[in-house]
């Protein structure tokens, strides 16, 4: 039984649209607008309680908004906004019904600096860094040639008010309990693996391959998974009969195979996958860990959390007219987003299953049309033609899944069936000789037995029963009581294995999803201030300093915002094309600094790829993909 577990278009970077304007005029204009706006707002705020009226468009905004939701004009740009602002940024919570959507409050950024409200020359600092990093100055080994000394002239009275405010916030922030970065981390170059950690070439058994199934909603991913498990004997006839009976009772007879993967009542009622379903089966070459991912846009964070473990992927597309086109639509199609995410996970091998071929009468012309359109996009994502396998299939009619198609209408296809195509996949290189690292995907607590179980994929190293491990970010030491792989007890698990680690000697609340199990002598780093190299996807709203978003890294998700935009990069050479741009547009590459609300377990991409890949999302869409180039330290 399965278990549930909780880029394109080149832009001329050398041209700056703002160069056409006179800076002095723009600054004076901003200053006058801010002064007039402050006086007008003082009058309007007395009219209504709980709302404030924009002096430009007269829209009534909620009192918690720092800028107009319609035109973006700031409300009392500096003093009032800073007075209400917390050091770590505005309070930020995820919506309970749709965890992917950012709350509307706080989406607008607070202006980083303004005339007439600045520090004295000795204490001049970039305002955004003062807000986010009040605990101490940021120290960097490199600056990428970016100057931080932006100065302007202003009134002395306002400067004193601002100084007093910032000093008070700094002193209060120092009393907070906040863990930042590594504390004397030992270099992994000193690590020598034990003999049992390296697999013997003569070891019997099949290698484990983690296979994610992704695609647009209603493309038939769960039905395909359920049918595959049933044909391979992982679901008995008795269980299948039960699913068919229950599905018919709810008027959803065609969902019977999908119910083998979608076990929760809500998933069955809504008819969509909401969390990643995990199942196991064996091919001639591999032990497969099947990761059935949700296709609905509301549950892309769950898809990221589960499918980030994948070694390879199956992209399922609906062959029926209109459905395939909806999946690759630029605005709401999840086929495109999933393909981009899968490639950013490090997956370079995919099988494209053109499902529901029975709906189009197994038409070769339709298959060729789908193949040509999707292949062009996959190439733009970085997939090579030699690493893409194409399989036409019908999960409902059992055509071309575990054996060649029996329907004569599909006789034109001479390639392998889906199961054979899986065996064509190559196992990626495993890091057996590095220290243990296992991101925690899900946690199961058993207080009565005094143990807690952590599920996830070993990214490097090895683990065995009785082994001492460190759980991050709590820094607690625990003992491995037992291991489970493919729902079977085992003694040793190595890099690449998807396992359940049963721990003892640690409280359940100290082990959390998004955390890490690592070697006690080589703890993973923890930080909430990072430098990223990102690729901006198709976005309609530019990314600016102060932009807020969801930050995803392995199985962790945190609220974050852009602190600095250091440089734009040339997409062909990777070299700096422009320093300190004002904003980032679609298809641009850039180096940015971000501050997270809570520290996360992280490593630089050059040290550990799995822990250095990040995904930025806002308003229900993935807006950028990137890697961690530097973990920025702070001085106390």
What does this structure look like?
With 636 residues, this protein is of the alpha+beta class. Helix content is 21%, strand content 27%. The protein has helices spanning 23-44, 79-84, 127-132, 156-174, 221-231, 237-249, 265-270, 300-307, 323-327, 334-344, 364-381, 418-423; strands at residues 3-5, 51-53, 60-62, 138-139, 207-215, 276-282, 286-292, 312-318, 350-355, 388-392, 437-439, 442-446, 451-457, 462-464, 468-472, 476-485, 488-490, 492-494, 498-504, 516-518, 525-536, 548-553, 556-569, 576-579, 589-602, 613-618, 621-631, 633-634. The strands form 6 sheets. Strands 11, 12, 13, 15, 16, 17, 19 and 20 form an 8-stranded antiparallel β-sheet that branches. Strands 1-6-7-5-8-9-10 form a 7-stranded mixed β-sheet, sandwiched between helices. A 6-stranded antiparallel beta barrel has the order 21-25-23-22-26-27. A hairpin with a 6-residue loop joins strand 23 (556-569) and strand 24 (576-579). The longest helix has 22 residues, at 23-44. 42% of the residues are buried. The model is unreliable at 5-34, 40-47 and 77-184 (pLDDT under 50).
Task: Record keyword descriptors for this entry.
636 residues; alpha+beta; 12 helices; 28 strands; globular
Number of continuous helical runs? 12
Shape: globular
Which stretches of 5+ consecutive residues score pLDDT under 50? 5-34, 40-47, 77-184
Number of strands: 28
| Arithmetic mean of pLDDT | 77
Taking the alpha carbons of the first and last residues, their distance comes to 51 Å
Q: What is the helix content?
A: 10-25%
**Biggest beta sheet attributes:** 8 strands, antiparallel
CA-based gyration radius: 27 Å
Structural class by sheet pairing and helices: alpha+beta
The fraction of residues in strands falls at 25-35%
């Amino acid at each position: 039984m399965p278990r549930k577990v909780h880029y394109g278009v080149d832009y001329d970077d050398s041209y700056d649209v703002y160069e056409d304007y006179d800076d002095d005029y723009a600054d004076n204009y901003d200053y006058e607008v801010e002064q007039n706006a402050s006086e007008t707002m003082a009058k309007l705020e007395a009219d209504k309680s709980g709302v404030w009226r924009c002096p430009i468009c007269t829209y009534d905004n909620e009192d918690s908004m720092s800028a107009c939701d319609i035109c973006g004009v700031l409300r009392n740009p500096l003093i009032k906004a800073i007075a209400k602002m917390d050091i770590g940024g505005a309070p930020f919570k995820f919506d309970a019904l749709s965890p992917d959507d950012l709350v509307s409050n706080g989406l607008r950024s607070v202006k980083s600096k303004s005339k007439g409200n600045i520090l004295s020359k000795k204490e001049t600092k970039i305002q955004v860094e003062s807000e986010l990093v009040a605990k101490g100055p940021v120290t960097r080994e490199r600056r990428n040639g970016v100057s931080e000394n932006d100065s302007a002239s202003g009134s002395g009275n306002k400067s004193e008010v601002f100084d007093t405010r910032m000093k008070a916030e700094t002193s209060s922030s120092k009393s907070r309990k906040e863990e930042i970065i590594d504390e004397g981390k030992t270099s992994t170059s000193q690590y020598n693996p034990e003999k049992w950690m390296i697999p013997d070439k003569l070891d019997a058994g099949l290698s484990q391959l983690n296979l994610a199934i992704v695609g647009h909603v209603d493309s038939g991913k769960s039905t395909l998974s359920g049918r595959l498990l049933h044909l391979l004997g992982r679901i008995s006839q008795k269980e299948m009969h039960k699913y068919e009976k229950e599905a018919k009772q709810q008027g959803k007879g065609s969902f019977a195979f999908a119910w083998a993967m979608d076990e929760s009542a809500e998933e069955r009622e809504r008819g969509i996958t909401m969390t990643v379903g995990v199942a196991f089966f064996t091919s001639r070459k591999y032990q497969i860990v099947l990761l059935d991912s949700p296709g609905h846009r509301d549950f892309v964070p769950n898809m990221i959390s589960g499918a980030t473990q994948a070694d390879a992927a199956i992209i399922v597309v609906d062959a029926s007219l209109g459905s395939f086109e909806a999946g690759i639509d630029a605005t709401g199609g999840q086929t495109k987003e999933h393909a981009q995410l899968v490639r950013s996970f490090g997956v370079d091998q995919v099988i494209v299953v053109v499902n529901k071929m029975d709906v189009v009468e197994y038409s070769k012309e339709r298959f060729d049309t789908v193949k040509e359109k999707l292949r062009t996009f996959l190439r733009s994502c970085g997939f090579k033609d030699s690493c893409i396998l194409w399989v036409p299939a019908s999960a409902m009619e059992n055509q071309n899944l575990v054996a060649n198609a029996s329907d004569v209408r599909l006789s034109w296809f001479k390639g392998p069936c889906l199961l054979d195509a899986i065996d064509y996949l190559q196992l990626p290189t495993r890091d057996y000789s590095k220290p243990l690292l296992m991101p925690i995907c899900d946690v199961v607590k058993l207080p009565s037995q005094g143990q807690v179980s952590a599920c996830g994929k070993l990214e490097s190293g090895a683990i065995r029963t009785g082994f001492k491990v460190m759980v991050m970010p709590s820094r607690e030491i625990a003992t491995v009581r037992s291991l489970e792989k493919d729902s079977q007890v085992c003694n040793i698990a190595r890099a690449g294995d998807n396992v359940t680690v049963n721990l003892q000697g640690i409280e359940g609340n100290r082990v959390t999803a998004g955390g890490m199990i690592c070697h006690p002598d080589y703890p993973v780093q923890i930080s909430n201030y990072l430098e990223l190299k990102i690729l901006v996807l198709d976005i309609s709203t530019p990314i600016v300093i102060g932009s807020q978003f969801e930050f995803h890294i392995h199985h962790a998700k945190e609220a974050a915002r852009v602190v600095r935009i250091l440089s734009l990069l040339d997409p062909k050479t990777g070299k700096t094309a422009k320093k300190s741009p004002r904003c980032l547009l679609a298809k641009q590459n850039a180096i940015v600094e971000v501050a997270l609300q809570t520290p996360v377990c992280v490593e630089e991409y050059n040290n550990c790829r799995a822990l250095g890949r990040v995904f930025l999302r806002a308003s229900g869409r993935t807006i950028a993909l990137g890697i961690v180039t530097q973990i920025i330290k702070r001085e106390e």
